[in-house]
Design brief:
By secondary structure, the chain is an alpha/beta fold. The protein has a seven-stranded mixed sheet, sandwiched between helices. A three-stranded antiparallel sheet has the order 9-10-12. The protein has a two-stranded parallel ribbon with strand order 1-11. It is built from 13 helices and twelve strands. The protein has two domains: 4-12 and 260-379, Aspartate Aminotransferase, domain 1; 16-256, Aspartate Aminotransferase, domain 2 (3-Layer(aba) Sandwich). 48% of the residues are buried.
Length: 380
């Protein structure tokens, strides 16, 4: 039976180019990049090539790119490091109710330290209203942290207005953006958007798990949260995982070879929306202007986990929300004000360049079977 993988926002299959690059760095160019001998310098050279690739993708300077272990560490480092660096200039932080747990839990820790954290609520469309952002930021605000694309619904947040609001409020705030679900999917240019700190992750773009990067705008100062080495200019010490780093660079290059990838995803998205809307018992939760890589929908009357396992038995892999939540109720859908019966039955499908219309047809057929079979079993 064909495998239908529709959980690409949780993780992607590592592309061949990235896997081969990682193997090369593990078996041939395997020196420690901090070593001063030729084997180490060779690894250092490959690592810096990857840094250049990421910097060019973000229209940034290579000195503004710092390697991390992924989105969670990058978000923790940005949020906590920025708050600690600016704590003498104010104690207000502005974020949203729909952030990834790596941001929300970091905020909770900062609240314990005495910071005032404002959690902005989204509108029915999943976006944070601009007026709410404006009213929350004042001269005492030291950090604004907002994701670019929501990982559960695909809603694209109005981050382009934040820098202007910060400036108008005469605020010293740094602006952090979690771009994990946006990077390599829509244009991400931090300088153009007035972003100071930006997080990206490798395993969402066909690179291995365990690698990511944090953009820190030139001249911006944050404090480290780890200690014990000179690597990454002491912002993120520890021996760099060169195989994963270089694989991330290779994955970016490979994605850039496919100039039609966004058009392909948009076509898959439209086809999936059409088929879902034609299926009785399905409610689509993602607005039409959400990023085309993600569709969140509900199979009314059925619990998410039940549908998920029904599909998995047929080798169709989807998600009931964020993978990091491990099955807990979605704080994102709760914040949107969706009724419990809709939120409890929510399913997220997320696409990659490897998906096609046949995948959607198989998904819909299996969903129809689930709605019929599982609903009947509930009545018995």
């Amino acid at each position: 039976m064909k495998e239908i993988y529709l959980d690409n926002s949780a993780t992607t299959r590592v592309c061949r180019a990235a896997a081969e690059k990682a193997m090369q760095l593990m078996t041939e160019i395997y020196g420690n990049p901090s070593s001063l001998h030729s084997k180490g310098l060779e690894a250092e050279h490959e690592k810096e090539k990857a840094r250049n690739i990421i910097a060019e993708q973000l229209c940034a300077e290579k000195t503004e790119i710092y390697f991390t272990s992924g989105g969670t560490e990058g978000n923790n480092l940005a949020v906590i490091g920025a708050a600690h660096a600016l704590k003498r200039r104010g104690n207000r932080i502005v974020t949203t109710e729909i952030e990834h747990s790596s941001v929300l839990e970091a905020m909770q820790e900062l609240e314990k330290e005495g910071f005032e954290v404002i959690y902005l609520k989204p509108g029915n469309d999943g976006k944070i209203p601009r007026d709410n952002i404006k009213s929350a930021i004042n001269s005492n605000t030291v950090l604004v942290s907002m994701m670019y694309v929501n990982n559960e619904t695909g809603a694209v947040q109005p981050i382009e207005c934040v820098r202007k609001i910060i400036t108008s409020a005469n605020s010293p705030a740094l602006f952090h953006v979690d771009a994990v679900q946006a990077f390599m999917k829509i244009p991400v240019v931090p300088k153009k958007l007035g972003i100071d700190l930006l997080t990206v992750s490798g395993h969402k773009i066909h690179a291995p798990k365990g690698v990511g990067a944090l953009y820190i705008k030139k001249g911006v100062r944050i404090l480290p949260i780890h200690f014990g080495g000179l690597q990454e200019k002491k912002i993120r010490p520890g021996t760099e995982p060169c195989p994963a780093i270089c694989a991330m660079g290779a994955a970016i290059e490979e994605l850039n070879k496919n100039k039609n990838r966004l058009q392909h995803i948009e076509e898959i998205n439209l086809y999936c929306r059409k088929r879902l809307s034609e299926t009785e018992g399905i409610v689509i939760n993602s607005d039409n202007d959400c990023i085309p890589y993600i569709i969140n929908f509900s199979a009314e009357g059925l619990r998410s986990e039940t549908v998920l396992h029904f599909l998995a038995e047929r080798h169709i892999y989807v998600s009931s929300g964020s993978a990091c939540a491990k099955g807990q109720k979605s704080h994102v859908l709760k914040s949107l004000g969706l009724p419990d019966k809709i939120a409890d039955s929510a399913i997220r499908v997320s696409f990659s360049e490897e998906n096609n219309r046949e995948d959607i047809d198989i998904l819909i057929k299996s969903l129809e079977e689930a709605l019929l079979t599982l609903a009947r079993s509930k009545k018995m």
